[in-house]
């Protein structure tokens, strides 16, 4: 997987559109023959009612292409979780028009969030 | 409750060559429910089709469900007319007599009950009731003969642990569109989820934390992915995630190590996805 072309877009989207603090991109170390970047930052408010407090979140930028299914396998997702050691990551899905949508991805089976 | 403890799953041949798993015994259906398998009731009459809520036996199981029940020793398969013929051939004259005796006993009980009811009715109307004058033919023609929906004989005579069972299991398993789904089912079952078919919410299974009559479902589980090879389809993540958020369910993907031995396949990785609420 290679997301080196989209992580800067996600970084600026989080900083300037979603108004996150301390947004910074990091390159993952244990990724063999791949170029994976993750973004760390702090949201302006709690993202889910189930969260106890405001915490730093990890965002994995990924590119959505209509005729290419990409290369984020579940094995790779497990490796990313193993390196970041977090409960959830947020997929930052970049569309070809420059918009970004965000999805929680929890490891394992999880309950739906309370409203 | 019946003498046999294992549940009989009939494999009825339909369009697919491996068969549709059905359960006909109402006691077995009760047991299944207690074990966390709800299934879907499908029985109705062509001339008086019913709404889903009023359907009756047989109970239709998912193929994964039937495989799991047999694999964990709670059920056995039976199939084909040859099983019935073979069972019928073991029938002895003594057993036939015994069946007739039981029938006669049931008639006797019914006669007694009907006479009693008739006497009570006459008494309440103040009409004197003479048992001698009561119509014998009317009474006889109102007796019921019960036709059971399951055969005790077949369950008793079938070889529940034979190579034939194994053969049926493998045939049914190979008939699955995605054999990984069986391991996903198994893993969810080990986490004590109730599962039902997932097409209503765009998945392979819907997972309930308990009996579907008591709980809302928590997750729509997608068809199994190859853990090492299948990429996560992001367009699916977006559409599934939006739908899931709308119906308050997590959209769950499961990875099965397809190339490995059976033991490794049972180690299924799950990821739960939902919309983050912004963007």
From TrEMBL, chain A:
<dbReference type="Pfam" id="PF09631">
    <property type="entry name" value="Sen15"/>
</dbReference>
<protein>
    <submittedName>
        <fullName>LALA0S06e03928g1_1</fullName>
    </submittedName>
</protein>
<dbReference type="GO" id="GO:0003676">
    <property type="term" value="F:nucleic acid binding"/>
</dbReference>
<dbReference type="InterPro" id="IPR036167">
    <property type="entry name" value="tRNA_intron_Endo_cat-like_sf"/>
</dbReference>
<keyword id="KW-0819">tRNA processing</keyword>
<dbReference type="GO" id="GO:0000379">
    <property type="term" value="P:tRNA-type intron splice site recognition and cleavage"/>
</dbReference>
<dbReference type="InterPro" id="IPR011856">
    <property type="entry name" value="tRNA_endonuc-like_dom_sf"/>
</dbReference>
<feature type="domain" description="tRNA-splicing endonuclease subunit Sen15">
    <location>
        <begin position="9"/>
        <end position="115"/>
    </location>
</feature>
<dbReference type="GO" id="GO:0000213">
    <property type="term" value="F:tRNA-intron lyase activity"/>
</dbReference>
<dbReference type="InterPro" id="IPR018593">
    <property type="entry name" value="tRNA-endonuc_su_Sen15"/>
</dbReference>
<dbReference type="InterPro" id="IPR042777">
    <property type="entry name" value="Sen15_fungi"/>
</dbReference>
<comment type="similarity">
    <text>Belongs to the SEN15 family.</text>
</comment>
<dbReference type="GO" id="GO:0000214">
    <property type="term" value="C:tRNA-intron endonuclease complex"/>
</dbReference>
Automatic annotation (TrEMBL), chain B:
<dbReference type="InterPro" id="IPR059049">
    <property type="entry name" value="TSEN34_N"/>
</dbReference>
<dbReference type="InterPro" id="IPR011856">
    <property type="entry name" value="tRNA_endonuc-like_dom_sf"/>
</dbReference>
<keyword id="KW-0819">tRNA processing</keyword>
<dbReference type="InterPro" id="IPR006677">
    <property type="entry name" value="tRNA_intron_Endonuc_cat-like"/>
</dbReference>
<feature type="active site">
    <location>
        <position position="216"/>
    </location>
</feature>
<dbReference type="GO" id="GO:0003676">
    <property type="term" value="F:nucleic acid binding"/>
</dbReference>
<dbReference type="GO" id="GO:0000214">
    <property type="term" value="C:tRNA-intron endonuclease complex"/>
</dbReference>
<dbReference type="GO" id="GO:0000213">
    <property type="term" value="F:tRNA-intron lyase activity"/>
</dbReference>
<protein>
    <recommendedName>
        <fullName>tRNA-splicing endonuclease subunit Sen34</fullName>
        <ecNumber>4.6.1.16</ecNumber>
    </recommendedName>
</protein>
<feature type="domain" description="TSEN34 N-terminal">
    <location>
        <begin position="17"/>
        <end position="76"/>
    </location>
</feature>
<comment type="similarity">
    <text>Belongs to the tRNA-intron endonuclease family.</text>
</comment>
<dbReference type="InterPro" id="IPR016690">
    <property type="entry name" value="TSEN34"/>
</dbReference>
<feature type="domain" description="tRNA intron endonuclease catalytic">
    <location>
        <begin position="182"/>
        <end position="261"/>
    </location>
</feature>
<dbReference type="GO" id="GO:0000379">
    <property type="term" value="P:tRNA-type intron splice site recognition and cleavage"/>
</dbReference>
<comment type="function">
    <text>Constitutes one of the two catalytic subunit of the tRNA-splicing endonuclease complex, a complex responsible for identification and cleavage of the splice sites in pre-tRNA. It cleaves pre-tRNA at the 5'- and 3'-splice sites to release the intron. The products are an intron and two tRNA half-molecules bearing 2',3'-cyclic phosphate and 5'-OH termini. There are no conserved sequences at the splice sites, but the intron is invariably located at the same site in the gene, placing the splice sites an invariant distance from the constant structural features of the tRNA body.</text>
</comment>
<comment type="subunit">
    <text>Heterotetramer composed of SEN2, SEN15, SEN34 and SEN54. Interacts directly with SEN15.</text>
</comment>
<feature type="active site">
    <location>
        <position position="208"/>
    </location>
</feature>
<keyword id="KW-0456">Lyase</keyword>
<dbReference type="Pfam" id="PF01974">
    <property type="entry name" value="tRNA_int_endo"/>
</dbReference>
<dbReference type="InterPro" id="IPR006676">
    <property type="entry name" value="tRNA_splic"/>
</dbReference>
<dbReference type="InterPro" id="IPR036167">
    <property type="entry name" value="tRNA_intron_Endo_cat-like_sf"/>
</dbReference>
<dbReference type="Pfam" id="PF26577">
    <property type="entry name" value="TSEN34_N"/>
</dbReference>
């Amino acid at each position: 997987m290679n997301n080196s072309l989209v992580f800067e877009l996600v970084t600026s989207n989080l900083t300037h559109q979603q108004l996150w603090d301390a947004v910074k991109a990091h390159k993952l170390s244990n990724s063999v023959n791949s170029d994976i970047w993750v973004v760390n930052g702090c949201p302006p408010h709690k993202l889910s009612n189930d969260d106890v407090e405001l915490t730093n979140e990890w965002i994995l930028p990924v590119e959505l292409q209509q005729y290419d299914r990409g290369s984020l396998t579940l094995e790779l997702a497990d490796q990313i979780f193993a390196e970041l050691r977090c409960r959830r990551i947020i997929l930052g899905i970049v569309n070809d028009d420059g918009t970004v949508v965000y999805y929680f991805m929890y490891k394992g089976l999880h309950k739906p969030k309370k409203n | 409750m019946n003498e046999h403890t294992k549940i009989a799953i009939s494999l009825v041949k339909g369009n697919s060559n491996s068969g549709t798993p059905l359960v006909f015994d109402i006691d077995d259906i009760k047991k299944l429910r207690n074990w966390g398998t709800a299934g879907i009731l499908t029985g109705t009459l062509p001339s008086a089709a019913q709404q889903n809520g009023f359907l009756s036996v047989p109970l239709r199981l998912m193929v994964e469900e039937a495989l799991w029940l047999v694999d964990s020793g709670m059920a056995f398969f039976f199939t084909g007319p040859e099983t019935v013929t073979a069972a019928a051939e073991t029938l002895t004259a003594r057993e036939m007599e015994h069946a007739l005796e039981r029938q006669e006993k049931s008639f006797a009980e019914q006669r007694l009950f009907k006479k009693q009811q008739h006497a009570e009715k006459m008494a309440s109307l103040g009409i004197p009731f003479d048992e001698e004058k009561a119509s014998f033919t009317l009474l006889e023609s109102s007796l019921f003969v019960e036709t059971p929906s399951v055969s005790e004989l077949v369950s008793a005579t079938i070889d529940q642990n034979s190579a034939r069972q194994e053969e049926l299991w493998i045939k049914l398993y190979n008939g699955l569109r995605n054999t990984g789904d069986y391991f996903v089912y198994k893993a969810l079952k080990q986490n004590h989820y109730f599962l039902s078919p997932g097409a209503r919410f765009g998945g392979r299974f819907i997972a309930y934390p308990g009996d579907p009559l008591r709980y809302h479902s928590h997750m729509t589980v997608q068809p199994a992915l190859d853990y090492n090879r299948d990429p996560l389809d992001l367009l699916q993540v977006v559409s599934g995630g939006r739908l899931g958020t709308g119906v308050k369910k997590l959209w769950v993907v499961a990875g099965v190590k397809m190339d490995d031995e059976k033991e490794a396949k049972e180690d299924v990785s799950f990821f739960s996805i939902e919309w983050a609420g912004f963007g």
